[in-house]
Structure formats: structure tokens, C-alpha cells
Amino acid sequence: MLTVLASGPLATVQDRGRRGWAGIGVTTSGAADQASAGLANRLVGNDARAAVLEVTAGGLRVRAERTLLVAVTGAPAAVSLGGRPAPFDAPLTVGAGQVLELGTPPVGLRSYLAVRGGVDVPPVLGSRSTDTLSGLGPAPLRAGDRLPVGTLAGDEPSVDVAAVRPPSGRPVLSVLPGPRRDWLQPAAWDVLVSRDWAVTADSNRVGLRLSGPRLARSRDDELPSEGLVPGAVQVPPDGSPVLFLADHPVTGGYPVLAVVTSADLPAAAQLRPGDTVRFRVAR
pTM of the full predicted structure? Predict the structure, then answer.
């Protein structure tokens, strides 16, 4: 059992998501940075299906009610155990009654805390993930929450530390042409892949709102709603693109100019307000 003492700006339970429900309007959700969440699970020997805690901008404090094996990955928040520095990207034993705390990461946005056995909250539609757009799954964590620990673990881990590069505050994301590129002026594609874009403050798990040159449309009529995927770069009437993340809506009615490749979605998920991002044509 883990007891939440402080949640920070936002902490949620996440796993690989609830797949296969888009037909009834339910998005996949799940960890925004699946690579970091998966690494955290591997470091403690968990099954890939185990749920972890996604911690946005640090600030999480939890107390172990029994001895637990944990790992913290993703945005490199300072980890302290019982008031002393503790390792990051490595398995860590937390004794009964000890308090684990995450500071604010200097780069990146989302850190992941895995506990051996997984966070065992009740699944909804096959997933323990919090979907912040629809409200499905457990509510965001609050002080006083008690989180059961499950049994989704395999062999004991045999690694001391994972050598992982920290997130970049100026990533370059690979994109493919979107299905409605023809709804934008021909120059819009060139502008998208040649200019800097700033992440604005009104960004979240649903998507990143980007500030930069206006992307002009070539058509002013209404586009019927179409399916969306993580990584879709949609252009609303104001010409400022939106890059959709894990909790994106299932459909949207604005043209999708580009789609970020799956391999680069973890880097996109680590962008925070004020960061700069560039796009390049996928090869």
C-alpha cells in the first residue's frame, strides 16, 4: 500500500491504456510517455500491463506502508527517500513507513513512479488509466489517497541503473503528411517543418497548443468530424497548431496537417510550457 501525502500539480494512475473502444467514443489514454512508463516497470520487474503513477512537474510525496521496490523514470526529478537523495532510473527499496518525494524536474514534464506489482486500482474498460478528458478511470491523486499494490510482477530485476538520456527542451519531432494537408495553403507544410514552435501554457495531457507563424487555410468551409490519433497536428481557424497527446478526443473537425511518428511521441509528452519544438519530415 502507498499513501499519498502530496500530489503536486497533477498525479494520475496510468498504464498502456484502454485500447479498442474508439468506436464508442473512448480514447486510448494511458501514459503520455509510454517509453518512460515502460522503463519504470522493467526496472522493478513488472509485467508490461502494470499501472504506474504519472507525476506532472514533480511535487509527489508518498509513504510506503510496507517494504516496496520502486523506480522513478521520465523527467529527471530529484528523488529523496527519508529526506536523503535517492537514485533515479534505478530500482530503489523503500522501507515500511519511509517517505519518497519527487522534486521539480529541471527538464521535461512527466516523471513515472513504478512499484513492484503495479498500482492495483480497479480497472475501467480494461485499463487503470485516468483519462482527463472523459473522466474515465480513477480520479487524479489527492493527499490521503491509499493505493493498493498488485501482483503484476515477474522475475526480480537484475539491473542497477538504466543509462537513459534526459528529455530535451528543444526536441525535433518527425512528422508524416496528414490526411487534410490540402486544406491548408501550400506554404503551410514548409512553415511547419522549418520554423520554431513554442509550447503555450494552455497545454495538457489532451494536447500541446503551439505558438508560431499562422498556418493559413486554403478552404473556409466546414470539415466533417474525422478520427484522430495521438500525434495528430490539427490546425484550428486561428492558424495555431495543436499537437494531440494521450487524452486526445476520438474525433475532430479541423484539418490535420501532419502526424508525429509514434517513436517521437514520448519526446512530445515531455514538453512543457515555454519549451521550443521543431518538426522535420520523417524519412
Answer: 0.95
